[in-house]
Design goal:
With about 200 residues, this protein is an all-alpha fold. It contains seven helices and no strands. Helix 3 runs antiparallel to helix 4 and helix 5 runs parallel beside helix 7. It is elongated, with a radius of gyration of 36 Å.
């Protein structure tokens, strides 16, 4: 009986000191519900990229850039779409056709921003001229006049000529924004610019 108890104690001690058993005991239980990270890459076909470029260019080009409220509403969404296009076009940008279309989109956005800036400034100048004439042009409650209006008009006129010279393909959009803005300002303050006679002044 004593021998049997001693044998059982020896077996138990050996099992507890076994490296394999210790490793099994120490290993934490695997969490079957643990989340696994993954990475997906969306690849656009060449035809899809070309279609998106053409659709984006048509939408931006056909919009009335002289309508500031329209630009306020749409430009943030155009910028997001433009950023997306800049990314998905990269695998095909080395191709002549795709690279040319993307260059046209880049120029389109550059011209739109420049035209928007000049037209906004012209609108502000026209508003200040209206306020300086008083209530209904009667002089009642008139605000201060812009002292250097000639300088502002000259700067805007030079920007108009520079845009036409640098971006001749966008002449209709430049006329729609900056050209018409100059014509409106010329109703309130007389100055000269390149295409003033196109607007019957």
């Amino acid at each position: 009986m004593v021998f049997h108890l001693a044998r059982q104690a020896a077996i138990t001690t050996a099992r507890r000191s076994s490296p394999l058993l210790a490793a099994r005991t120490a290993a934490p239980a695997a969490n079957v519900w643990a989340s696994r990270g993954y990475l997906t890459v969306v690849k656009y076909q060449r035809s899809d990229v070309v279609e998106k470029l053409e659709t984006f260019r048509a939408e931006v080009f056909s919009t009335n850039w002289a309508d500031y409220l329209n630009l306020v509403y749409n430009v943030p969404f155009w910028e997001l779409e433009y950023e997306k296009l800049s990314s998905i076009v990269q695998p095909y940008i080395h191709e002549e056709d795709v690279g040319k279309k993307f260059s046209e989109v880049q120029e389109l956005m550059d011209v739109m921003y420049q035209c928007e800036d000049v037209r906004d400034h012209l609108n502000e100048l026209a508003e200040l001229c209206t306020r300086a004439s008083g209530f209904m042009g009667t002089g009642y409650a008139a605000e201060e006049k812009v002292d250097n209006l000639d300088e502002h008009a000259k700067a805007c006129s030079e920007a108009y000529d520079a845009l036409l010279a640098k971006h001749p393909d966008f002449k209709p959009k430049i006329e729609q924004t900056v050209g018409h803005g100059l014509a409106i300002l010329r109703q309130k303050h007389k100055f000269k610019f390149g295409s003033m006679h196109r607007y019957f002044f």
